[in-house]
Amino acid sequence: MRDEHITAMLDDAPLSTFGESELAVMRSHIAGCDRCRRAFEAARVSSLMLKERAAEEFEPSPFFQTRVLAALREHRAANEAANETWTLGRLWKAAGLLVSSMAVTVAALAVFTFVAPQATTTTTQEVAASSADNSYSAEAVILGEGGASDEKMSYGQVLTTLYGSDDGAAK
């Protein structure tokens, strides 16, 4: 045991948890090791000091209980008062920014919907007039049924057939 020091054992557990056989091994080791003897004595002294301090009883000041109970009543009264004053002002402070931004969004959407000029829509008569000018119909283009000839249509012709001419959008 001369090569192994007992400081690791003292660091791992309190001195009061060791049994008699372990204490005998420690005492035999500290007889020849000065560093371990100092660590053992420090552990023994600190253990005794802790026992003495734990055994010591003290009395609280005469009005300790009265002061603690008064502070507890004040704390409860303050919390109750805070809960009762949950008014519209406190609610507005908590959610005012959210409500304001929602109101501005609704107002902007209303302006865009009702006040802003709307795009002109193509009526059924305009579509019929534009399809009369065009020899193709949407069904003929989609299904690939013959038109005037078997020529390939350009993209512009397909879009004009499906969505109407640009002349109707300018009106």
Task: Explain briefly what this protein structure is.
With 171 residues, the protein is mainly alpha-helical. Helices cover 69% and strands 0% of the residues.
Properties at a glance:
171 residues; mainly alpha; 0% strand
Structural commentary:
- It is a single chain.
- This protein has 171 residues and is an all-alpha fold.
- Helices cover 69% and strands 0% of the residues.
- The chain has nine helices and no strands.
- The protein has helices at 7-12, 20-30, 34-55, 64-84, 88-115, 124-133, 138-143, 155-163, 166-170.
- Helix 2 (20-30) crosses helix 3 (34-55).
- The termini are far apart.
Q: What is the number of E strands?
A: 0
Order of helices and strands: HHHHHHHHH
Shape summary: elongated
Rg from Cα:
47 Å
Report how far apart the termini are: 107 Å
Strand content: under 5%
Largest sheet: none
Helix/strand-derived class? mainly alpha
> Which whole number gives the mean pLDDT?
79
Tally the helices. Answer: 9
Task: Note the topology.
Layout (H helix, E strand, L loop, with lengths): L6 H6 L7 H11 L3 H22 L8 H21 L3 H28 L8 H10 L4 H6 L11 H9 L2 H5 L1
Helix pairs in contact: 2-3
